[in-house]
Design a protein that fits this description.
This protein is α/β, with parallel strands linked by helices and 588 residues long. Helix content is 27%, strand content 25%. β16 (312-317) and β17 (324-328) form a beta hairpin. The structure holds flavin-adenine dinucleotide. Flavin-adenine dinucleotide binds at residues 238-244, 261-264, 268-270, 272-273, 276, 278, 311-312, 342-345, 387-388, 391, 477, 480, 518-520, 526-529, 531.
Amino acid sequence: MSVVPGSIIDTRGNQMFPVLQPDEVQRLRRLGEVRSYAAGEPLAKVGDAGHGLIIVLAGTVDITRRDASGTSVLITTYQPGAFVGEIAQLSGRPALVDACARTAVEALVIRPDRLRALLVAEAELGERIMRALILRRVGLIESGAGGPVLVGHAGSADVLRLANFLSRNGHPHHRLDPDTDPEARALIERFHVDLGHLPIILCPNGSLLRNPSEDDLARCIGLVRPIDPDRVYDVAIVGSGPAGLAAAVYAGSEGLSTLVLDCRSFGGQAGASARIENYLGFPTGISGMALMARAYNQAQKFGVEMAIPDEAVRLEAVPSSDCYVLQLINGERVTARSVVIASGARYRRPDVADLELFEGSSVHYWASPLEGKLCAGQEIALIGAGNSAGQAVVFLATQVAKVWLLVRGPGLRASMSRYLVDRIESLPNVEVVTHAQLTGLEGANGMLDAVRWRTRSGEEVRRAIRHVFLFIGATPNTDWLSGSGLALDPKGFVMTGSDVDPDRRPLETSRRGVFAIGDVRSKSVKRVAAAVGEGAQVVAALHTFLAQAPAGSRERRAIGSGRQEGDQMTIVHYQTVEHDDGWAALSQ
Ligand SMILES: Cc1cc2nc3c(=O)[nH]c(=O)nc-3n(C[C@H](O)[C@H](O)[C@H](O)COP(=O)(O)OP(=O)(O)OC[C@H]3O[C@@H](n4cnc5c(N)ncnc54)[C@H](O)[C@@H]3O)c2cc1C
């Protein structure tokens, strides 16, 4: 296999491709079934879903990826003791690589639910397998292998939208720009695509999508699947930012059947943070995406179902039942005995003419490496004075020639953490303009040519700037709750606990069994750690509610109970009877 120096295969190849010892394989035999494959027969094919982990018992298996033209490229060859799979197999999502028997092969196939149970039950072995699954995904993301091929011009708003969507969902993809890539031009000719109709996406299953919506793309690559309309979940969580993911990890690990919905990607606002420096336990800081990807994988390990992207548009109580229904934008519905609202907040937009004409291509609300690359070496304007603005400035200053930081007030110290202010003051290519107000955007075809702002003296400044970043705060994502009857505060945040009723449980809204956590909750502390803390806390309240509520429309059983350390409350673990998550096999 060709290895790029410094790539993850180069640096962590041993952890990516561990070989299980014969006694370990023997222990795992009870979890799977043994299958035989003839030489040349596929064990897994790109796009096929649900095959789980495949441990090679005898023979050799070639793992290959397909490049943009569909040609197979060898990644590695597995010997007995090695296993086929990456993180998608935890949830039975489509394979991103091909696995083909080079010789006659005998293999142990462990389906996804049993794989999850194995990861939880076998601490040391589970850790090794989980690490390998994650590192393999990282390797695929690094090389762009296994995912869709996105063909379009680098500066296009739609290319950025689709690339951002795939990156934020941790999905590998390959970008080809017809301005610089002969391969892109060859694909455009092969599929007879008019240049005006770019971008196009070639999916691993062979489908060609023309400038698709995120939802169409997600369904084509198997990122999101239909929801079982008959299933009743213990809890449905709306939002997969830090609050929703924390609630998912604790709910899943404590045996609650859990579904998480997000209309965009996992990670929420935190996933957009270039570097979180104040989260406990990460003294050197951690990128928001890295932190959130860990939580996302952790939740899936505990059997949490993810529906991303899927947007909740309405919350309703089911008459004559103790359940709630979430109506989704695509017409699907989710039924659950309790609901956790973790839908966070969204960026505010300034009142300036023609803003929407430039959004996506020249006006940005995130500062990820994608945007950094887009404005490399240029002058940019960034508006805002909070911590999110500060982090974006610190990151972008390493990429661009100059940052004009436009601040409405007299300075940064009142609204930004001191460490960020100090760092910004030490950056030679950042100029802070106080008492500044954005007054105009000039350009054509979605691309900015110039930006205007007014200073304290009333003078209007005009500069040739092609990219503007807006970090001016957020409003709660609660539009979808109109008609739900939930009590909101005057700013639209969801009220909980004693603010709605003296007898209400903490984090419970004005409706029993509906909880709100994180940034969307009235009076919450708008921080990652606070959101995570509320996500953990709400699960205790869920247990109490579910233990007291009627049994619901499906037969359910308690699978165990225990006292949480440092907590006075007895926790009861519930699980729907027909949901076999593999625990049975492990306890044999
Ligand atoms: C750029 C940036 C940097 C930051 N840096 C830091 C930092 O360094 N330290 C810190 O402590 N805090 C930081 N914050 C704040 C922190 O990210 C938030 O407090 C935290 O993310 C809130 O988490 P949450 O889960 O409550 O909501 P969010 O993170 O907002 O997540 C909510 C999720 O709900 C989804 N959603 C919304 N409506 C629906 C719907 N109808 N259906 C389905 N899904 C829906 C959204 O897509 C989103 O993914 C930063 C924020 C930003 C924007």
